[in-house]
Amino acid sequence: MLNLIWLLLLASGIIVAAINGNIEVVTEAALGAAKGAVEVCFDLIGIMALWLGIMKIAENGGLINTLARLLKPIMVRLFPSVPNDHPAMGAIILNLSANMLGLGNAATPFGMKAMQELQKLNKNSDTASEAMCTFLALNTSCITLIPATIIGVRLSFDSANPTEIVGACIFASLCAMTIAVSLDYWFRTKSPWGRKK
Amino acid sequence: MLLDSLTVVSKWAIPLLLLAIPIYGYIKKVPVYEAFVEGAEEGFKTAVKIIPFLVGMMVAISVFRASGAMDYLIAAIAPLMVALGAPPEVLPMAVMRPLSGSGTLGIATELMRVYGPDSFIGRLASVMQGTTDTTFFVLTVYFGAVGIKKYKYSLYTGLTADIVGLLAAIYICNMIFR
């Protein structure tokens, strides 16, 4: 599926550009994006190192385990295949908390850490495990309590009430999260993908 | 009042974490600096590992956008979106949301500059920005970090959540801001 989407994005872009007679934009867009992708990763290096460093301290001190134990009742239901004392649980919790608070650049390192821990439990290392799918479903649709970035943009344009959109964001992201978690559950338990173990 | 507390939270959250966790670790007899460096090293490796995945995805999305193919996609879904109560101006943002976070934020900023943050368009754009995450980016980066190539049903779940989030954003904005 992903292979097809990737091919469709690339091929339809090139074909449309050719038909419209502006094929030169393809070269520029492709080379620029390739360069941009590396820049994004370089920007990430420092942030990743900082947060994973801090997280290691919290982990070695036992803080993350405590956090995971507190949220155990929910986590066990969402991630039945992950032992509840596994380090993945702590990283998942940190990632989701950072997402809820709108701390985007702290969320990414925790998320990757969570994936690495989940990968240790994964029997088939090039295929996503059920727990990984659940985690990404939650992550991409996570309820937003403080959409910090957009509040900042609204502030910069002198909005009369920059935070008036918070309630609407919570409602809409709650809808998205409910659907994502339900759909994930359905795929996990009812679809052929989930059943074959 | 709400704004003040939110500003305070976003200003203090990170400094407080940076203060509290090392102090906590020190009390728990963790060799704090050594632990930090050990964790940071993992961060470096992970960031480097996602480069090929991100290059692949960003090139495809960028070509799709720059060629004008995305404009056709927007034109194709426009009538549907307008029927649901979304102004046509926010359509590019809706299509961009799962593909590119910075792209979406750019469109949202532009919409607010042109129409004002307190217009219906500005508010809807804000809610759309705050509702879901960039599914393609998250999938590429997170799966890339551990070398997963087969995403199973993840993409369907993520994109369905994006569509539901979008529809919910249009609905709630029409309810409270019209």
From TrEMBL, chain A:
Which domain of life does this protein belong to?
Bacteria
* Membrane spanning stretches: 33-54, 88-110, 131-153, 165-187
Tell me the keywords, alphabetical order: Membrane, Transmembrane, Transmembrane helix
Q: Coiled-coil stretches, from where to where? A: none
Please verify whether the record's keywords include Transmembrane helix. yes
Report domain Nucleoside transporter/FeoB GTPase Gate positions.
42-152
User: What name has this protein been given in UniProt?
Assistant: Spore maturation protein A
From TrEMBL, chain B:
GO CC annotations on file: plasma membrane
Keyword check for Cell inner membrane? no
Question: Entry's InterPro entries?
Answer: Gate_dom (IPR011642), SpmB (IPR052549)
The reply on keyword Transmembrane is yes
- Keyword line: Membrane, Transmembrane, Transmembrane helix
Pfam families reported in the protein's UniProt record: Gate
Record-annotated Nucleoside transporter/FeoB GTPase Gate domain positions: 48-149
Which residues span the membrane?
Answer: 12-27, 47-66, 72-91, 120-143, 155-177
User: Record's superkingdom?
Assistant: Bacteria
Protein's recorded name: Spore maturation protein B
